[in-house]
Specification:
alpha+beta; conserved putative lor/sdh protein from methanococcus maripaludis s2 fold; Elongation Factor Tu (Ef-tu), domain 3; 4 domains; 6-stranded antiparallel β-barrel; 21 strands
Length: 352
């Protein structure tokens, strides 16, 4: 289209050049009577000048409603201005981009707390010898996994001189061993077994927050590794506080089937105080800031579009969207910063 317009302009310029002699013929020479030129009566001077001016304006400016089509570079600029980024499926997979749907969600009002993972005392057993005697054999070491009913050691009774097994009363892991071959058992604890498929989280609650923390409230637990999170409920609030830091312990029962929560480690937590349902919400990590404005990358037929949004309430995990997105639209919920980086590269290239 752009080439056609240039060709049209060339033709009109040629026409102007060809008609200029005719115009000068039509115009009387300075000082010569007007009737000396027969064409003067047919083409008045002012009309010839007007035709020339109109023709020049039409040639320089494209016709009304017509705009030249952009070439390849201009198309790239338009592409960038629209905020669209086209990626292949392999590029999307390599970048770890995940897409979710805009929809309703719960916005939580939370109280941040700090705590520590401790063993579930209800799932820790101590094992002793039933009858005093001499330890003849030790079958398990610290760290060994055991099953309920499995033999831990063999003891020879001092009275009957018969040997009997010391068995595990719980499936779990041996955490302590106080038994060596040849020793007298006495009445001491020989083994401690812990089942860490569940653990406790002891949260420290300051006096100012104690009135809003209650048994049964949901709690979100976050490990030092942010990718490890869990959900539990407050099972009890201890009646005795700490004289050291003036806090009260709120205890949470947390499932730990993969043993990712290690007793002794510190954690952060968010106690859910209230929940509000909102009709349009997205994940917090989907939001990026472009030119000081929050945007979300929306998936469309032509790629990913950087869509400006107006946000409402947020709990750090989910954000309410007041304007800019519709329920059901597909948006980038994970690794959207990759698209922001690509958008920045395009802007930088076009800037040069």
């Amino acid at each position: 289209m752009k080439t056609l317009t240039r060709y049209r302009n060339f033709l009109w310029l040629r026409l102007i050049i060809l008609t200029m002699p005719l115009s000068w013929v039509a115009l009387p020479v300075y000082g010569e009577p007007a009737d000396s030129s027969p064409l003067y009566h047919l083409v008045p001077r002012w009309l010839t000048l007007l035709i020339l001016v109109i023709t020049l304006v039409w040639v320089v400016n494209p016709a009304h409603g017509e705009s030249p089509a952009p070439d390849g570079h201009e198309q790239e600029e338009a592409h960038s201005e629209e905020g669209r980024i086209a990626l292949t499926p392999d590029q999307i997979k390599h970048a770890g981009i995940a897409v979710d749907r805009v929809g309703p969600a719960s916005i939580r009002e939370t109280l941040p707390l700090y705590g520590q993972i401790v063993p579930n005392a209800e799932r820790e057993h101590t094992v002793s010898a039933r009858f005093p005697g001499v330890i003849k054999n030790v079958a398990k070491q610290i760290g060994d996994a055991v099953q309920q009913g499995e033999t831990l050691a063999t003891v020879e009774s001092n009275e009957s001189l018969k040997s009997y097994p010391v068995i595990a009363s719980l499936s779990g892991v041996v955490t302590q061993r106080n038994a060596n071959v040849g020793e007298q058992t006495g009445d001491r604890v020989l083994f401690v077994i812990g089942d860490y498929s569940t653990v406790w989280v002891d949260l420290s609650v300051f006096p100012a927050d104690l009135s809003i923390v209650r048994v049964g409230q949901s709690v979100r637990i976050v490990n030092r590794d942010p990718s490890i999170t869990g959900e539990g409920k407050i099972m009890t609030i201890l009646p005795v506080g700490s004289s050291t830091n003036q806090t009260t312990t709120a205890r949470v029962l947390l499932d730990n089937p993969d043993h990712r929560w290690v007793p002794g480690h510190f954690v952060t937590a968010e106690v859910v105080l209230s929940e509000t349902e909102v009709p349009t919400a997205i994940r917090e990590e989907a939001i990026q800031i472009v030119e000081d404005q929050p945007v979300v990358f929306v998936e469309g037929d032509e790629g990913f579009e950087a869509r400006p949004v107006t946000l409402g309430r947020s709990d750090g995990q989910v954000s309410e969207v007041l304007k800019g997105l519709q329920v059901g639209e597909a948006y980038v919920s994970t690794n959207s910063f990759t698209l922001k980086s690509e958008l920045g590269k395009e802007d930088a290239e076009h800037g040069h």
